[in-house]
TrEMBL record:
Keywords: ATP-binding, Helicase, Hydrolase, Nucleotide-binding. CDD domains: DEXHc_HrpB (cd17990), SF2_C_RHA (cd18791). The keyword Hydrolase applies. The gene is hrpB. It comes from the Bacteria. InterPro entries: DEAD/DEAH_box_helicase_dom, HA2_WH, Helicase-assoc_dom, Helicase_ATP-bd, Helicase_C-like, HrpB, HrpB_DEXH, P-loop_NTPase. Residues 808-833 are annotated as: Disordered. Pfam families: DEAD (PF00270), Helicase_C (PF00271), HrpB_C (PF08482), WHD_HA2 (PF04408). Residues 197-368 form the Helicase C-terminal domain. It comes from Dyella choica. This is ATP-dependent helicase HrpB. The keyword Repeat does not apply. GO terms for molecular function: ATP binding; helicase activity; hydrolase activity; nucleic acid binding. PROSITE patterns: HELICASE_ATP_BIND_1 (PS51192), HELICASE_CTER (PS51194). Residues 16-180 form the Helicase ATP-binding domain.
Length: 833
DNA sequence: CTCTCCCT
């Protein structure tokens, strides 16, 4: 079979030559260049391979299978001979396999299982520009291996974007660029009208695009909500030759295929898609792309421990990739719905920078080496949070070393949370565990009314009903048969890994699912609040609520599997009820009896309780007598409730605090103490606690004591700096001292009569000249005339006007022609006359 | 009540 010509084909000899002498290479090639299939084939007999095989990392299973298939076909062999692939629960490799295409998790397992990479001569990272977590980790590990154990290992990073320069610098590697094979795409930026929503804009541009172009249209939107809205609005186009279809990841395979199929005769197709259409599916017949320029990306917040989705502007690389979709079959057009002047980021933020990192942290603990040659190192905050979770799950010990359980979790190959739950489950429930691993990993197979169910058990019973009858509609479940078949396939894989013969049918009791999964989410155990059946408190102290049509009404205990983070409390999207006796048995250390002292504003008194808690959840609370040692904590609680203003501030102390806080902001290099309200409230124990000893009531604290407590926060040197750089008052040219009013975040205000400033050319400044004072210029009667930070400009431009106007009203006061040299005064008549 | 994509 003669190899077909690809755009990359002429570059293959150069690739060979470079790799003969260099162990690392960056290959830049746009989609359609043929790099995925032609590079491995070209390298398979390279002398430096020395009989070892090539491993190629592919970010998606479909792509891994397809690439292997294509290469085998080109060799005229069945798959599993020279070319094979390995994805989870599926392996098509043989003894003769020289090119092995693997997905991301497989590569990590391969490396961890044998850090010398015996029998592997080269690793190719395809689609590296997508910057998936596992790709970054795999590359860092491969580089580490090359530095230490295997200098002969070849590492080839293949990327579709222009970020190649940065990657080449990181790898210290030469760079080869290949042209792609696509048709020219005309780019337009039709502007939005004022008050026009993105959706309205998109519909209007669709109308325009239909007139200006032939062929089908692919429109990119950030999510399902926007797709549904636009779908509704398309009727406004009032054309009956249009077929509008949605395409997003939540659709079943059959529904996706419907979107991918070409339109029927005479009809023009408009595909409204999310990011799935950017890289994961190929769409035939597209001639026009309309791009809203938005995408949803997950952001993990290590402080709250939650991930939320944010709608963000896409990168330039992504915009180009999207536009390229219009040029695959013929020349096309792309309409971008953002202003041409907007600067997009060059490429998308690496996943490692913004996702939850427990899986990565566990891999790093197993690897043992602390420092890896990252392109972008994992953020310290997220890594610390991940390690805390791993300790909680039992995967790391207190010194953050991997435990035996942690190693077994890695071997199992599920996420750390789910692996922990699986490995703690009693053997009798392993068949159910396999189902839970498969279901937790997949999108919900439920359709229709039940798709909205927040009771995770509904999915489990749908799987069981389908398994028993091989029917997606049995037992009143409306479910997607294709999705269920895929879930069953995964469950079968987990059963094999757990050494089980048969599948689960039915649940042993109503709490079984929750009792198993609570070990995966010990921080997300929730207890129903008193008084409101929809509100819950999570073990981590946060609030959560069920939606109004919940299927979980009345369950006192839940383990929350999925929730959407909201400002006040979070919405439970998926949960399962549990039996609290399991908590008592498995987490006895989390149950505590604590004494809680608080201030009751209503009763203006100290109250003391003894509470029985699970984490932050209060199970039982009873009043106990208030004791002497309760007083200080209660008074501090009262202050926290009332705020700093509730304290007896003298005028001097109040001004001192504001000056100190302002100067700290203006001159951070002085290292002044933080006296902001937030910090003072947070540290009350330290600075005010000593002054509250032996006090029972808040008003027993005097102004003097409070002033002393504040003054004790800074030393003599700091006080001297304060008086020099943020003085309490300024002496103005008239010889009078005038107060400066400080207010954090703003320049200080000096209110002064105009006449007192005669002779002063420029605005006075504080903080070593960094901050000009805001002048409130007053009339002789003390009425405001002008607010300015530019005294020079005032004298020059505004003063002549002001003078004209005020001279008549205040004839006894001086209004000189030349304020620069006039004698300043605060009296009616200038001194000495 | 409406959440992108993907993987061991």
């Amino acid at each position: 079979m003669i190899a077909p010509m690809f755009p990359i084909t002429p570059l293959l000899p150069e690739l060979q030559t470079v790799l003969a002498s260099k162990s690392r290479l960056v290959l830049e090639a746009p989609p359609g260049a043929g790099k995925t299939t032609q590079v491995p084939l070209a390298l398979r007999d390279a002398p430096w391979l020395d009989g070892k095989k090539i491993v190629m990392l592919e970010p998606r299973r479909i792509a891994a299978r397809a690439a292997a298939q294509f290469m085998a076909q080109q060799l005229g062999e069945p798959i599993g001979q020279t070319v094979g692939y390995r994805i989870r629960f599926e392996s098509k490799v043989g003894a003769a396999t020289r090119i092995e295409v693997v997905t991301e998790g497989i590569l990590t397992r391969l490396i961890q299982a044998d850090p010398e990479l015996t029998g592997i001569g080269a690793i190719l990272f395809d689609e590296f520009h997508e910057r998936h977590l596992a790709g970054d980790l795999g590359a860092a590990l491969a580089l580490d291996i090359q530095h230490t154990l295997r200098p002969d290992l070849r590492i080839v990073v293949m990327s579709a974007t222009l970020d190649g320069e940065r990657i080449a610098q990181w790898l210290d590697a030469p760079r080869i660029s290949s042209p792609g094979r696509s048709f020219p795409v005309r780019i337009e930026y039709p502007p939005a009208r004022t008050q026009e929503s993105t959706e309205q804009h998109l519909v209007r541009v669709t109308r325009q695009a239909l007139e200006e172009n032939e062929g089908d249209i692919l429109a990119f939107l950030p999510g399902r909500r926007e797709i549904a809205r636009v779908q509704g609005m398309m009727h406004a186009l009032q054309r009956d030759d249009l077929e509008v279809v949605a395409l997003h990841g939540e659709l079943s395979l059959a529904e996706q295929q419907l979107a991918l199929a070409a339109a029927e005769g005479g009809m023009r197709r408009i595909v409204l898609a999310t990011n799935v259409a950017e890289s994961s599916v190929t769409l035939p017949g597209i001639r026009v792309v309309i791009d809203a320029g938005l995408a949803r990306e997950p952001r993990f917040d290590p402080n709250s421990g939650f991930t939320r989705l944010e709608t963000l502007s896409i990168s330039q690389a992504s915009a180009d990739q999207r536009a390229g979709r219009a040029g695959r079959v013929a020349e096309g057009a792309a309409y971008r719905l953002w202003p041409q002047s907007r600067r997009l980021d060059a490429s998308r933020t690496a996943e490692i920078m913004q996702v939850e990192l427990s899986g990565l942290a566990l891999e790093l603990a197993a690897w043992g080496s602390a420092e890896l040659p990252w392109l972008d190192p994992p953020p310290a905050g997220a890594l610390a949070q991940a390690r805390e979770l791993l300790i909680r799950l039992g995967a790391l010990d207190a010194q953050q070393r991997i435990t035996a359980l942690g190693r077994r979790m890695l071997e199992l190959g599920a996420t750390p949370r789910l692996a922990a739950a699986a490995l703690r489950a009693p053997e009798a429930l392993h068949a159910l565990v396999a189902d839970l691993l498969a279901l937790m990993d997949a999108r919900s197979p439920l359709r229709g009314e039940q798709a909205r169910s927040d009771d995770f058990r509904t999915r489990v019973s749908a799987l069981h009903a389908w398994r028993d009858r091989r029917s997606a509609t049995g037992s009143g479940h409306a479910a997607d048969a294709g999705a269920l078949a895929a879930i069953e396939q995964a469950s079968k894989g987990w059963r094999q890994r757990l050494n089980l013969r048969s599948a689960a049918s039915g649940m042993p009791h109503s709490h079984a699912v929750g009792d198993l999964l609570l070990h995966a989410f010990p921080d997300r155990i929730a207890r129903q609040d008193e008084g409101n059946p929809l509100r819950y408190t999570l073990a981590n102290g946060r609030g959560a609520r069920l939606h109004e049509q919940t299927a979980l009404l009345g369950e006192p205990w839940l383990v929350v599997l999925d929730l959407r983070h909201e400002a006040r409390d979070s919405l439970v999207l998926s949960a399962a009820p549990l039996d609290p006796r399991v908590l008592e048995q498995d987490y006895p250390e989390q149950f505590r009896r604590v004494r809680n002292v608080r201030w009751s504003e209503g009763r203006a008194a100290v109250e003391a309780f003894e509470e029985h808690r699970f984490g932050a959840i209060v199970l039982e609370r009873r009043s106990v007598p208030v004791q002497a040692e309760d007083a200080v904590p209660a008074l501090l609680a009262a202050i926290r409730q009332r705020g700093l203003d509730g304290l007896p501030w003298s005028e001097a102390a109040r001004r001192l605090r504001l000056r100190m806080q302002s100067l700290r902001e203006w001159m951070p290099e002085l290292g002044l103490p933080d006296v902001s309200e937030a910090h003072l409230l947070a540290t009350l124990e330290d600075w005010l606690g000593p002054y509250l000893q032996n006090k029972r009531k808040l008003d027993a604290l005097s102004e003097d004591e409070l002033s002393q407590a504040l003054a004790a926060l800074f030393d003599y040197e700091q006080r001297k700096q304060l008086d020099a750089q943020a003085p309490d008052s300024l002496t103005v040219p008239s010889g009078q001292a005038r107060r400066l009013e400080y207010s954090p975040g703003e320049p200080p205000v000096l209110a002064v009569k105009l006449q007192e400033l005669f002779g002063l050319a420029d605005t006075p400044r504080v903080a070593g000249g960094r901050v000009p004072v805001t002048l409130h210029l007053l009339s002789p009667a003390g009425r405001p005339i002008q607010v300015t930070q530019d005294l020079h400009g005032f004298w020059e431009r505004t003063y002549p006007e002001v003078k004209k106007e005020l001279k008549g009203r205040y004839p006894k006061h001086p209004w000189p022609e030349d304020p620069w040299t006039a004698t300043p005064t605060h009296r009616a008549k200038p001194r000495g006359t």
